[in-house]
Design a protein that fits this description.
The chain is of the alpha/beta class. Helix content is 43%, strand content 16%.
């Protein structure tokens, strides 16, 4: 593994850039990409949520770009200027306009919300009936397919994010997995092998094993991302990703930046 495209800094919910870069050097990476969270939806609910979280990359990306230049001078490491955009198919036009204006080196797209709520919020989804949960999970995979088909992004991150939430886990079907795989096979958008929860309670990569078994039957390339928010996470997740890629004989690639 030579590059980690998916880390976060204090420009969203991660740690100081210098500490992340130092950890990347110690993990023998050649390059590190900062892909801080960004949401440009004009809808009131999303605007309030990002304001409450302090996710302001849509107005601070130029300042962060200056910081990235400083990291490139300071470390024996190529530091890339990326972004992780919240995707909602209702916001395609405004996302496209922002990405065109901001001109990041690369963009990661992620579906983070269902029913106006972050996918991780277990108590909210636990109150839903099984039929409602199944409908929401179907909606999630529909959005994941729309994300890939939009071709706004270089990378589609954690395309089975709903599996992290015990209340929504196991409602996905093979049909969902095939729909994502077919979309990816005919798109420039690459799927990510994401290690964001592999060493936590969830204990799996994204995509999870059943999904990965289906993806293996398609002609796909993958990129690797630790989804690290702290420097301590980078080396341990890099090691896990390298072992996973070797065990599955994955066709991994690097972006042409």
């Amino acid at each position: 593994m030579r590059v980690d495209y998916h880390t976060h800094s204090t420009y969203s919910d991660g740690r100081f850039m210098w500490s992340m870069c130092r950890a990347a050097e110690e993990a023998d990476l050649n390059a590190l990409g900062f892909a801080d969270h960004c949401n440009v939806s004009p809808r009131d609910q999303q605007h309030r949520a990002k304001t409450a979280l302090g996710f302001n990359l849509d107005i601070t990306y130029e300042r962060r770009r200056e910081a990235i230049e400083t990291m490139n001078e300071r470390f024996d490491l190529t530091v890339h200027d990326g972004v992780e955009m919240d995707f909602d198919s209702r916001d395609i036009d405004v996302i496209a306009d922002f990405l065109d204006e901001a001109d990041f080196e690369y963009a990661i797209g992620s579906v983070h919300h269902l029913d106006g709520t972050n996918v991780h919020v277990e108590p909210y989804f636990a109150k839903k009936s099984d039929d409602e949960k199944a409908t929401l999970v179907d909606e999630f995979y529909g959005e994941a397919v729309a994300l890939i088909e939009s071709e706004l992004f270089d990378i589609a991150a954690h395309v089975d994010l709903v599996e992290r939430n015990p209340a929504l886990r196991d409602f996905a079907t093979e049909d969902h997995f095939h729909r994502v795989a077919e979309a990816a096979e005919s798109s420039r958008t690459l799927l990510e092998i994401n290690a964001g929860r592999v060493l936590d309670e969830y204990g799996e990569f994204h995509p999870a094993p059943d999904f990965m078994d289906i993806l293996d039957s398609y002609d796909l390339e993958f990129v690797l991302g630790t989804d690290s928010h702290t420097p301590e996470e980078i080396p341990e997740r890099v090691e896990e990703l390298e072992k996973f890629a070797a065990a599955h004989s994955l066709e991994t690639t690097e972006l042409n930046l």
